[in-house]
Write a structure and sequence with these properties.
mainly alpha
Length: 109
């Protein structure tokens, strides 16, 4: 299972520095993670927001990456509790790579 997980990452020896950076941005950039968290996970519905934050829908502001930060925190907690295998299972369950590929095609042209 772990090998399938790592198939989604570019090996350094076969890609240029720019290709690796583009790859990282597509799966780990704040904009992509924010869109994934908002559009696919609906993470904004699971966070306890303050009254003003909720009223103003701070997750919708153009410059905010709040949901990307919260998604990264979620991954960190899973990693600390369950290790890389737990992260892999979570990413598979939420169809992370499949949905991120869709986001790249649709939103991040």
């Amino acid at each position: 299972m772990i090998l399938q997980f790592f198939d989604h990452f570019a090996p350094n020896e076969t890609f240029s520095g720019k290709e690796i950076d583009d790859f990282r941005q597509s799966y780990g950039g704040n904009e992509a993670l924010h869109l994934f968290s908002k559009e696919h996970l609906k993470l904004q519905k699971l966070i306890l927001w303050g009254p003003d934050q909720c009223k103003n829908k701070v997750w919708e502001k153009p410059a905010t990456m709040l949901l990307a930060d919260r998604f990264e925190m979620l991954i960190a907690v899973v990693y600390f509790e369950r290790g890389i295998g737990g992260v892999e299972k979570l990413l598979e369950r939420i169809r992370f790579f499949e949905k991120m590929d869709e986001i790249r095609k649709t939103f991040l042209k």
